[in-house]
From TrEMBL:
Pfam families: GerE (PF00196), Response_reg (PF00072). InterPro entries: CheY-like_superfamily (IPR011006), NreC/VraR/RcsB-like_REC (IPR058245), Sig_transdc_resp-reg_C-effctor (IPR016032), Sig_transdc_resp-reg_receiver (IPR001789), Tscrpt_reg_LuxR_C (IPR000792), WalR-like (IPR039420). It comes from Streptomyces lutosisoli. Keywords: DNA-binding, Phosphoprotein. This is Response regulator. Residues 12-125 form the Response regulatory domain.
Length: 243
């Protein structure tokens, strides 16, 4: 049976972030999946609004703090055009709550999710399933009359669980080459076509750390090049993903 995520037209995504490295990393990561297409990358809220109005994306990934028109200012109008996932460094509970009040359909904090969780969250918005990191001090409930979330300050720092199913399905008993969870994430990004700089930006680690991960990955995969590692990875641990 074909994966439901890969049926139908590609999910059209607009990325809005003032950091060009983050924009490039997200574009490369998302564009590495055949069911996702990045239709525009904006540097601020005003540019995001113009692009969303012109291109009518299915999902918007939006930073909170940007020069000029920031994410929170642009959010209400953007949310009328498409589901908006806040993707930002801002984890203050009051900022999260305000974003949800203004119409955000989800909220993820850089450094607190994996590449697989991001892809899953973006896909989930197509089906109206919101995602809020469970480490944030804000809980949420769906509004019965709209697709937006109704936030409230939680008594503790735990919110309801995030939708975080794995991106790739492993066949039982298949070898994972002994890769750590971070090495799996880096290897997936390599397979998506990212260079070291883009991987560093996406994982929020230094390029030196990326190189260290890659050296360990190559050793575990018994590979001497990216192409050889990708062939081993896709052919053995991610059966069917490259089709």
């Amino acid at each position: 049976m074909p994966d439901q995520a890969l049926t139908g037209p590609p999910l059209r995504v607009l990325v809005a972030d003032d950091n060009p490295v983050v924009r490039a990393g997200l574009t490369a990561l998302l564009g590495g999946h055949p069911d996702i297409e990045v239709v525009a990358a904006a540097a601020d809220g005003e540019e995001a609004l113009a692009s969303a109005t012109r291109l009518t994306p299915d999902v918007v990934l939006l930073d909170v703090r940007m020069p000029g028109t920031d994410g929170l200012t642009a959010l209400p109008e953007l949310a009328r055009l498409a589901p908006v996932m806040m993707l930002t460094y801002s984890r203050e509970p009051e900022v999260v709550a305000e974003a949800l009040r203004r119409g955000a359909s989800g909220y993820l904090v850089h450094g607190e999710f994996t590449a697989a969780e991001l892809i899953t969250a973006v896909r989930a918005l197509r089906h109206g399933r919101p995602t809020v990191m469970n480490s944030l001090g804000v809980s949420y409930e769906p509004n019965e009359s709209t697709s937006h979330l109704q936030p409230f300050m939680a008594q503790s720092s735990k919110a309801r669980p995030v939708h975080a199913a794995g991106l790739h399905r492993r066949v039982p008993n298949q070898p994972d080459f002994g890769l750590s969870s971070r090495e799996v994430e880096v290897m997936d990004l390599i397979a998506a076509g990212m260079n070291n700089r883009q991987i560093a930006a996406t994982c929020f680690i230094s390029e030196k750390t990326v190189k260290n991960h890659i050296n360990r990955i190559f050793a575990k995969l018994h590979s001497s090049s990216r192409s050889e590692a990708i062939a081993h990875w896709l052919g053995t641990t991610h059966e069917g993903w490259s089709r």
